[in-house]
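Friendly challenge for the regulars: who can give me the structure tokens for this chain first? No prize, just bragging rights.
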Amino acid sequence: MGEVQRYKDLIGQRVAAGKLDELAVDMLKAAAANNGSWSGLWSGVLDRLRELPPGTRRLLADGFAAAYHSDLAGPVSQENALTLLGVVAHGLPQDWLAAQRLEKLGELGRQHSFWSGSHHEALAEAELAAGRPLAPAVVAAFRRSALETYQDETLHRTAKKLTHPALNVGEEWAERALADAGGDPDWHALLAHAATATAARPSPKWDKRATELADALGPDRVRVTVLPWLALVGRPRTFPLLHGDYESHLSEAYDPYNANALRGLAWLLALLPPHPDTARALGTLIDTSLRKVAGLGPRNPKVANAGVNALARMEGEAALAELARLATRVTYKATGKLIDAALESRATALGLTREEIEELAVPTYGLTEVGRTELRLGENTALVEVTGGKALLGWRSATGKAVKSAPAAVKRDHPEELKELKASVRDIDKMLSAQSERLDRQFLADRTWAYGAWRERYLDHPLVGTLARRLLWTVDGRTVGHADGSLRTLTDEPVTEGGEVRLWHPVGHDPAEIVAWRDWLERHRITQPFKQAHREVYLLTDAERATGTYSNRFAGHVLRQHQFNSLAAIRGWRNKLRLAVDDEAPPATRELPRWGLRAEYWIEGDGGERFEEITESGSFLRLRTDQVRFYPIDAPQNWAHCCGGEYRMERRGGVGRVDPLPLADIPALVLSEVLRDVDLFVGVASVGNDPTWQDGGPGGRFRAYWSGYGFGELGQSAETRRALLERLIPRLAIADRCVIEGRFLHVKGERHTYKIHLGSGNILMTPNDQYLCIVPKAGGGTPQTGYLPYEGDRMLRVILSKAMLLAEDTRITDPTILSQL
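First reply, four minutes later:
Bragging rights claimed.
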């Protein structure tokens, strides 16, 4: 503070003595002393300069200009001289260093933001005073900077003056919007109003103004113009921004000023007449906004929340369908709560339960029978058919001949119908995935349905029926499946009526009966949307009877934290990312209201001895796993340090410690499903199934674990895979080269014999069990193996693909693989 006051006093002294050249030098020294940041008390020094008479400031400006051109001036001192010049020259007619100022502003346009203490607004004000508008990229930088927390009021004042363009350039959707708006003042007014959406939800005043602006342009015109903008959200920036080593995520984050405008556009769309395209576009915007970016997390939850708010305010089937779809897919907690609240509100208004509203919300998407529809367009016919988990669009010409793509006459005469057909096919694919996930969660929900309602909402529903007809159900206690046009028993006896319906689960059924139903599905060539007849059953082990209240079955594993976190959220578990900080977190938990239970999976962060194995944002890359426990659902929460240590239960409201429940008292279905979830987490997220980790990862720390997991005893899911492969392999073209022994599928090639582990997919080859690293392609297609009894087992696809490749190892051309052979 003493140094700041000294410079304030020095200003008065130098001015009184007429030593303005020396004052210019003094101010440059002050800038060097504060590292170019005039924030806090230092801003008072600039205030003193601003208060000087115009004549004095003109002479001082001459001094700063001379200092800028001095041979001794380096880049930093030149930047300081330019800033100080902008401060003292405000309101003066002369335009000092205009070219240099413009160059510096151009540099600012390539930054995401800057700190207000640098007082770059002085440069902007000088440019505006000269009658020249700032470049759009520079305007964007000032707006972004003004939106950051704790910025100086002078920066806010300057940013408010920058009203053109209406949106920040640099994002494809915003530049498209500006181009579409052209010189129309009504469109610019609408975009400017959208950018004022800074609250959690719109006020009546905001809605009124938005409605007036939309009415002036025409609601339909607004919809057909705005929706294509939303389709461009999330695309790569049109020009890159400079960023620091730990700010790479900024290139994928939404521009914060434009993000406000996106919120406003979402709110605006809810005020227009409802339309299926609007609901579809808002659903996509929510998905895009919640897509995770390394170092950032979800791209922009606030925009996603605005999309949910808009869907909740819209009438019609399409908006409700999007909410129901999102309820099964969204894992971000805050947005999920908004979706839940919206669905609960709709359910209450209609006098239904939350489950019923989700069932009734599924649209038919134009399907006129289960999984199929035909639409005549002129002399041609479009066919939409659901096959497995995909919708396919096919065509027949006027002569009835099947053609691969839309005929030219359809493209010419029916463009809107064709566009809607293609959109419906995409919608069906997304909804099928969401409904498959919802049905897979019904085991623990323990739902029952009246037979008539169940047929309407499930078996005979044009879309959901494509899933329900591939599952097994119990009707009044009898297990049934759908084949040859009707429900049938194991002996193919038709079932045409009933009272109570449940989703069938293998727990409690005789193994012989389960095998018989697997044969039935195979005989009828039914591929289930997820494991049901082949579902793993996790029974209590002797070790768990001995421990009594906890299971160590999935302890001691090393998991990729972010992959585990995503899987847990999809399966309905709550989890908190472990950060390498002094903080505590509860275990991963899944609440089971139907059973009054809470399941816990105890985990801790692993960042290495020096905590160097963490992300830019400070989260651990990996976790170590421990016990699985069960508590009453209302028991106090357990907590442990994120970096590891003992879990302990918090005491709240006078409630003391609650003991974990004996595993023997947990219903068999609950125990099996919870352990199945945990097995899934380990099977997918374990570093042991990464084929590139044969060296044990960083410093070889995980070599023993990787080897033990990658080639060790099979877990329950791998045992199920083994049983399926025993039935499947004899039907393959490579059957004579394959044999299953113990934990491995043995494949005889021309160069070597290979052993593929049935749990991890890792490979050993002759001689001497040499390791062979083959990294499967991301999202690789299903190998041509013929009939499979269920979908969704990625590791099964990996093993089959590797087997087919290695059975013909003389045809391998990949140089990385060949170098190991």
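The two ends are 72 Å apart (CA to CA). The CA atoms of residues 34 and 580 lie 33 Å apart. Your move, everyone else.
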